[in-house]
Here is the input.
Amino acid sequence: SGARIAGERMRAGVASLAPPDVPAPLTVSIGIAALKGIHKPLSLATLALYNKADEGLHRAIREGGNRCVVR
Here is the structure.
């Protein structure tokens, strides 16, 4: 998906950075979510979107980090 491609580009961009004062490689874990057809009040839809992205982030971390997970 386009979101996964964008997330992977961000992850690769951060990984390519090499700040001189940072001893280890930089890594990024990303959780991405999208809502299809909003059938709830906007505030509930926003909360659902946040929760889905947060679940993706935690899954990326559980799977070893430095990855992008789309929920």
In short: The chain is about 50% helix and 10% strand.
